[in-house]
Design a protein that fits this description.
By secondary structure, this protein is an alpha/beta fold. It has one domain (4-134, 171-215): Vaccinia Virus protein VP39 (Rossmann fold, 3-Layer(aba) Sandwich), CATH 3.40.50. 29% of the residues lie in helices and 29% in strands. The strands form two sheets. Strands 3-2-1-4-5-9-8 form a seven-stranded mixed sheet. The chain has a two-stranded antiparallel sheet with strand order 6-7. Helix 1 packs parallel to helix 4 (66-76). The radius of gyration is 16 Å and the shape is globular. The termini are far apart. Bound molecules: S-adenosylmethionine. The site of S-adenosylmethionine has 20 residues, from helix 1 and strand 2.
């Protein structure tokens, strides 16, 4: 299967490496464990794998795009990267100390199966830190302007250099009773990413949602 990121892997990498980023320092500061096995869900071309390798974690990554995985293998040299989907992770129960993800999980139309897989492969006390497109940004991008209805949003990212399509989500897909029965919510951050497209009143609404959970 050829995914949308197979077609734009090089363009995405070049744009991501050239556009100033404010999100990674926030995300990295939320990973408080100092060692162990770390998995990056939707690792892309491997920028975050390299960061965590330098921090001495044992680093794993998965991505559904073969082209992105090729780039990640080249860039990270030594991270264990594979072509898989975060809805079905190729790992045993309680393998990881940390699960990390940046701008990837919102690509699935359903978030619940991802949390189930994360809960399965994360150790007790393990950290789950991720960044997704904020549901409010999706709302602004919707043609229907119907918060409740899932719709494919076409988003300009990375300083307008790349266009991607992703399904919209509601906030309660990321925080709900089922999730909170398995995880403690440790942090909840809303920010505007200046690399995002400037939609009406840019900066007056959050474009990213960052959550940190700890598995009970
Ligand atoms: C916006 S990119 C972010 C890449 C990387 N995390 C970063 O911040 O540079 C989203 C990535 O998620 C991957 N992705 C989308 N759906 C996926 C799925 N179901 N399973 C695994 N990876 C997926 C894409 O192939 C792409 O590489």
């Amino acid at each position: 299967m050829v995914t949308q990121y197979d077609k734009i892997s090089q363009k995405f990498k070049n744009a991501d490496e050239s556009v100033p980023d404010v999100t990674r320092p926030i995300l990295y500061s939320l990973v408080t464990k100092k060692k162990g096995k770390l998995l990056d869900l939707g690792c892309g071309y491997g920028e975050d794998l390299v960061h965590f390798q330098k921090e001495d974690f044992e680093v794993y990554g998965i991505d559904v795009s073969k082209e992105m995985v090729k780039e990640a293998e080249k860039k990270s040299q030594g991270a264990k990267v594979s072509v898989s989907s975060f809805e079905k992770l190729p790992y045993d129960e309680e393998t990881f100390d940390i699960i990390f993800s940046r701008y990837a999980l919102q690509h699935s139309d359903k978030i619940t199966p991802i949390f189930k897989e994360v809960s399965r492969v994360l150790k007790k006390g393990g950290e789950f830190v991720f960044l997704v497109t904020h549901p409010i940004r999706h709302y602004f991008e919707k043609k229907t302007k119907d918060y409740w209805k899932q719709e494919i949003c076409s988003s300009l990212i990375l300083g307008g250099k790349v266009r991607v399509e992703e399904p919209s989500h509601k906030l309660n897909e990321y925080i709900n009773k089922e999730i909170l029965s398995k995880f403690d919510l440790i942090d909840f951050i809303e920010e505007f990413d200046p690399a995002a497209e400037k939609i009406k009143d840019a900066g007056k609404y959050p474009s990213i949602l960052i959550l940190k959970f700890k598995k009970r």
